[in-house]
Amino acid sequence: MTAVDFIGGAGSRFYDGNDENWEVDFEAVVKGFLSRTMTDWCMYDRVAIQLAADIVKNFLNYVLMQDVCPEYASNIVAARGICDIAPTELRHVHELSSQLPGDFNRAARTLFCEGQVKHLDKDENSEALVQFRLTTLVWSVSDKMKQSKHKILEASDPTTITVVSTMDQTYEVLEIERPRHKDKMMVRQQLADMNVNSNLKPTGFIRVRPAIIAHGWSNVPRPEEVDFSNAEKDEFLLEDDLLAKFEIGMKMNVTVCELNIGLRFIKEVHELRVSFDTFLPQYLMTDWKDPVPNERPPPSVNDPNCEEKAMGADMVADD
Question: What are phi and psi of 119, to 5 degrees?
Answer without folding.
Answer: -130, 55
